[in-house]
Amino acid sequence: MANTLVCRVELNKENGITIKVENQASQITQTVVMDGTSITITCKGQQNTSTITQKEDSITITCKDFKVEAETITCKSTKDTSHKSDQKIDIESTQDMTIKSSAKMTAEATSDAKVSGQNVTVSAVSKAEITGMTTSMSGTTKAEVSGAQLALSATSQAEMSGAIVKVSSSGMMNVEGQLTTIKGSMLNLQGSLVKVG
Predict the structure, then answer these.
(1) Distance (Å, rounded) from C-alpha 32 to C-alpha 51?
(2) Residue 181, pLDDT score
(3) Number of H helices, E strands in the chain
């Protein structure tokens, strides 16, 4: 036996127009209300209800599951845009992705934050800083730190170690301290002019 729907159309000069379709077998009621101020479309089932409310300056969609599928999607606002989730947010692209701001950009995480890629470049026009309670820089093949001027300093203790350590200067080199120790099982001092003392 085919499902029978109950359809009603109500016209009222004060309340506007109400269109209602009842599916008694599935216990689903669909309602469209146009009251002269807003248009409200409601679909109410046994467990869930979805609503679309359109006013002169806004459209509000309330539902359990909201999906948009299209070949091209463009979203633009002349003022603020906000996206918020009480759970997880995933943004994924199978091709290039660009995030750009003409003003200030802030990325923050209360837990771990991770940036990874085949090649990662971080650049600044003026100043770049990396700070942390513990900061590590490592390379499985090679690690480089370079600049027109390079300063390595520590308020407590500084160490440099390796299987082979080479310190060289194309100009003048100074190694100095209130107490300086140069130690090795074999010590070799070379130069056209070597002055000790």
Answers:
(1) 10
(2) 84
(3) 0, 6
